[in-house]
Amino acid sequence: MKKMKTLLAASVAAASMTMVAAPASAEVSASVSVASLYLWRGFDLSDGSPAVSGDITYSTGGFYAGVWGSSGDDTYGQEVDYYAGFATEVGPLSVDLSVWNYVYPGVSAGFADNGDTFGDLSEIILGLGMGPVSVTIYDNIAGANGYFYYTAGLDVGSFSFLAGGTDNKDEDANYAHFDVSYAYNDNVSFTFSQMIDEDNDDDLRFVVSYSLPIAM
Fold first, then answer.
1. CA 70, CA 7: separation in Å to the nearest integer?
2. CB of 77 within 8 A of CB of 91?
3. Where is the signal peptide (predicted)?
4. What SS3 state is found at 38?
């Protein structure tokens, strides 16, 4: 089940949804990141190898759409994610609802119901936030129906804490993990990730990542 990915993003997003207020006018934003490994929902998808990623997003009036790309993981190679959604605030509550489609250009037909084809591996993601607390629900709607992934996050100054886990119709495939991250500054961050499921690798994973916004 580990390929039912969301963006995470080598410590970008990933891990949990970012709650933002609706922009006042249309804008285009972009960034590029490099991480010591591709950490996704507790798993090391790059088998310890560095990962490079980048994104570009168009947003207006709370609506947004964009593309996120990565050098890929150790098994399926390059990854391209397409996403669209709406983010707003209702009083103290932040709401972010989006649809993500994951494509692996180098993979032949047959992976995850032809996961190399647009629309064949997709999730609906709902993120809710209030102050330093956030909750995110990932519902796989194409490619592996019956798979849910949940996170609960807490931000405390430069530190963030994230608990994630799955609800799978195949109960033997369920797992959970816990991450602790520290943002050294706006560009550099460090993450420790630990599986808390005896059926998965119990090695503590460490990731250092560097992200840089691109002026548009």
1. 10
2. no
3. 1-21
4. coil
Residue 128 forms part of a structural domain: yes
Distance, CA of 104 to CA of 122 (rounded, Å): 12
Cα separation, 150 vs 41, in Å, equals 10
2 is a domain residue:
no
Please count the structural domains in the chain: 1
CATH number at residue 86: 2.40.160.160
Quick one: residue 158, left, alpha or beta (phi over 0 = left, psi -120 to 50 = alpha)? Answer: alpha
* Residue 5 maps to a domain: no
The pair of structure tokens assigned to 8 is 């995470």
pTM assigned to the model: 0.83
What are the backbone dihedrals phi and psi of residue 173, each rounded to the nearest 5 degrees, phi first?
-90, -5
Share in percent of the chain as helix, strand, coil (round to 5): 0, 55, 40
**Can you give the pLDDT of all 216 residues of the chain as single tens digits?**
334 443 333 333 333 333 344 445 799 999 999 999 999 999 999 999 999 999 999 999 999 999 999 997 777 788 999 999 999 999 999 999 999 999 988 775 444 444 556 667 899 999 999 999 999 999 999 877 678 999 999 999 999 999 999 998 888 889 999 999 999 999 999 999 999 876 666 789 999 999 999 977
The boundaries of the domain holding residue 168 are 27-214
**Residue 201 φ/ψ, nearest 5 degrees:** -55, 125
Region of 191 (left: φ > 0; alpha: ψ -120 to 50; beta: rest) is: beta
